[in-house]
Amino acid sequence: MINKLMATPAQAVADIFDGATVMIGGFGESGSPIELIHALIDQGAKNLTVINNNTGSGHVGLAALIENGQVGKMICSFPRTANSTVFPDLYRAGKIELELVPQGTLAERIRAGGAGIPAFYTATSVGTPLADGKKHEIFDGREHVQELGLKADFALIKSLQADRLGNLRYNKTARNFAPIMAMAANYTIVQTQEYVEAGAIDPEIVVTPGIFVDRIVTVKQPAQESKLVAAGVSYP
Amino acid sequence: MSSPVTNSKPTDSKHEQKQTFGWSREQMAQKAAQDIPDGAYVNLGIGIPEKVARYVPKGREVIYHTENGLLGMGPTPDDDDIDFELINAGKKPVSAIAGAAYFHHADSFAMIRGKHIDICVLGAMQVSQKGDLANWSTGAVDAIPAVGGAMDLVAGVKTIFVITQHTTKQGDAKLLENCSYPLTGQGVVSRIYTDLAVIKVTQRGFEIVELAPGVDFDYVQQRTACELIRP
Questions:
Q1: Is B46 in CB contact (< 8 Å) with chain A?
Q2: Other CB atoms closer than 10 Å to residue B203's CB: what's the count?
Q3: Quick one: B216 exposed, middle or buried, by C-beta within 10 A (0-12, 13-18, 19+)?
Q4: Do B67 and A104 touch (CB under 8 A)?
Q5: CA A148 to CA B106: how far, in whole Å?
Q6: Name one GO molecular function term (chain B) (predicted).
Q7: Helix, strand or coil for residue A174?
């Protein structure tokens, strides 16, 4: 019988290895799987390439993972946000690599990676420094740049509801990158607020089908990143 | 001065006091709002563009898209109704209107890239007379580069409006023959709403559509680093 349920976040992230590429869901704190990230800090895997829209804030969650020296490279669209100092300081010191990607191109690269599409063309970034060195081609009289699909060894995401087979639903704009990251990773690890039996989610409203989900851990009341940041909390 | 219908919220009184002539930030937002038609799907950038929603004339139904996965964005909620998983692209709490829809990031940018969004209103560091926009980086060596969704929006949305002060705080022109900062997109801007004028980007360059009260053509020309076309 299929059983994707893990007892703890620690168990769910135990095999993330040094040098792995890890997609982490979230747009700022919305949708950020903070308990899984903290478990990854405890676990200690190093030299990770992390794909996320941002770089975290304060000294918890993704910012704490970076601060703990576990991330060698970030692939993101907007690495500086309110209360974000960890990444900017390391970047200025030359201690972390950055691949800056326009947000829609980032999303489509992840979607393409998960859909088995190695590359695609987009008009986004044509004529800007972010198109430098990329293959250009004209379609319908307009110049486009070639972008490559992105895949990952692991994805860490958060859901509102997960059933035994891994079907997922999300909460409002916390959905953001999670469904496409779930498709693009070899192992997708979900922290869910609610774990339900198969059949409890109407198939018509499943957002991520269970085939894209490998491990589920229940975190009934996830921490709210902005509250931790406001309280000056540092992890660990 | 025209007096557009204002839906809500008083103007920024502190800024109003400093303003001696020309349009205030609120009035720039009002000017742009007049040009958003009934039924438009609109994406508003962070800063002054966010104010535009307040001034869309009554009777026009406009649907707001936010690229982090919501179509049908509503106003800032009361404190009791704030949900930190319901935010806009500026990561501020918002609400969802009746009839709103949530979707993931690839679908959200398919709406943008696939030319389904009608109008995007953005801020600018520089705009060239060819409609090139620079609004993400000054190219400074020690700056942390951050682009977000701006390049996707300008490449994909049907019509791009820019709201910006006419010059920098130091008095440097922001409307130029060619941008000196790294571009966000090439030939993408349609109209510019500054504190001094509303300007249309045409094949011949910047054409003045309307001057702010108390501002004459020469005054605007002196603060613009390329030739303007008279209305």
A1: no
A2: 7
A3: exposed
A4: yes
A5: 15
A6: 3-oxoadipate CoA-transferase activity
A7: helix
Lowest-pLDDT choice from A51-55, B77-81, B198-202: B77-81
Give the up-direction half-sphere exposure of residue A49: CA atoms within 13 A in the CB hemisphere: 12
Q: Which of B165, B162, B167, B179 is nearest to B222 (CA)?
A: B167
When CB atoms are compared, the residue of B85, B137, B186 closest to A174 is: B85
Q: Is-catalytic flag, B67?
A: yes
- Condensed to tens digits (0 to 9), the pLDDT of residues B133-166 reads 999 998 888 889 999 999 999 999 999 999 999 9
Give ipTM to 2 decimals: 0.96
The shortest CB-CB distance from A103 to any of B137, B148, B185 is to B148
| Architecture in CATH of A18-100+151-210 | 3-Layer(aba) Sandwich (3.40)
CB contact under 8 A, B86 and A172: yes
Q: Which CATH class is domain B13-222?
A: alpha beta
Which residue type, as a one-letter code, is found at position A151? K
User: What angle in degrees, to the nearest 10, is found between the helix axes of B105-113 and A103-114?
Assistant: 120
Please give the structure tokens belonging to residue A188. Answer: 């997708």
